[in-house]
Amino acid sequence: MDVFKNLIQTRMFQKGEVNALHDLVEIRTEVVYTVENTFKLRQNLLLNVLKILSLTIRYRQTRDGRQLFDYLEMHHGIKPEMLDTLYKYAKFQYECGNYSGAAEYLYFYRVLVPGNDDRNTLNALWGKLGSEILMQNWETALEDLNRLKDVIESNNQAGTLQLLQERTWLIHWSLFVFFNHPKGRDLIIDLFLYQPQYLNAIQTTCPHILRYLTTAVITNKRRRTVLKDLVKVIQQESYTYKDPITEFLECLYVNFDFDGAQQKLRECETVLLNDFFLVACLDDFIEMPDCLYLRHSAEYTNASV
């Protein structure tokens, strides 16, 4: 609320802003009520559980969550219903903006809940990934992203539509990681272009992701060999999606329209400047297409001769 007031203190209150402030007051009241009536009574119990979990997981190096839970139940009186409270408390911390606390509690929950068929287990993984992204812990976020991907792909009970939806969500969330992690522009190529199930998801539900894949390829000096594979995909999807970034490669590698490529390159600057994920790639992007343009122009000239 204080942040909201600071944002609008320099001008008159609008009607919508007054309503928004009223909504924030109601939300704060609900949060205070939840703390006092739902979690306060269990606060000491939760703190004791978390302390025991932290010490036990640290000193008992076991990968078997069931074995660990049986040990905690036998020696410390931790019951299955406490795990549900732990999950709800972690979710509450996330919704209140305490992402470090949420990440820690969701980690404990994930360790102790065996198997991947429990719906809260998958939700906990999404929450943990979201927490690490919001804290900009990119190395840990990448680990969580890979763990979540493994869980999605190992779910034999999920239907085709559910898998497609979860892969689509993973593709979108991964953009935060891939465009901030030092190795992200390599990893996005490996996942989006060379893992068929994810390329299929892009082609089926979110062809606009080709913008990000294309940018990663263009700005990656080490992955020039993938250009031909990417251009094939861009051609296949050109009837459903195109923007100046994908059209730049089409002009250069399909139509051999070098004047058109230069025009698209100027349009690309506007696209990158207004894209949350790509604005940091602007300098690399502007530098690399000149190299592509000159090299491909020379190759085309030699072939024509």
From TrEMBL:
One of its Pfam families is eIF3_N
Domain Eukaryotic translation initiation factor 3 subunit E N-terminal, by residue range, is: 2-93
Q: Which domain of life is it from?
A: Eukaryota
Q: Does the keyword tRNA processing feature in the UniProt annotation?
A: no
Any Gene Ontology CC annotation: eukaryotic translation initiation factor 3 complex
Enumerate the UniProt keywords alphabetically.
Answer: Cytoplasm, Initiation factor, Protein biosynthesis
Recorded GO molecular functions are: translation initiation factor activity
Q: What is this protein called?
A: Eukaryotic translation initiation factor 3 subunit E
